[in-house]
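Lines hold sequence, tokenised fold; shown next:
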Amino acid sequence: MEDNCSNRLQASSVRINLFLHPSHHKRYELAYKSGYFSLGPWGASLPEPIVLSDQSALSVGFTNDNRKGRGWTVETQAGLSDSLISADWGTRLLGLKVKIGASASSNGEITGFVDGERKITATVRGGVSVSAEWEGGIIMRLRLVPQILS
């Protein structure tokens, strides 16, 4: 019983985000994720597969956007088990917010996506997203998001 309690208390990692906004249209992000760790006996009995499922990583990103819905983001992440670089570009096209992006990781995974979203009614937004992995599959997601009126 004591080991399970210790594991539950330990089974979370620390994430620190630092956002800098030098202007209304530019945003910098620095994020650090500690991964699982143990302090003395606290968390020492955590099973190895769980410990290895969330390892330490540091990411740095830059976003440039404007009020018309156009912009881009570039991010790089360095971690103990995997590193990656990703980029996306967004614009408005025929009343839709469209975003196109891709990422590549050090473990050989290459992913691309296309995302579209628009207002359906005064209180509901809808969207569709399609992502594809080089050696994986294709995933399509549909979403409806209710808007809260204030």
About this structure: The chain has two domains: 1-80, 82-150. The longest helix spans residues 2-10.
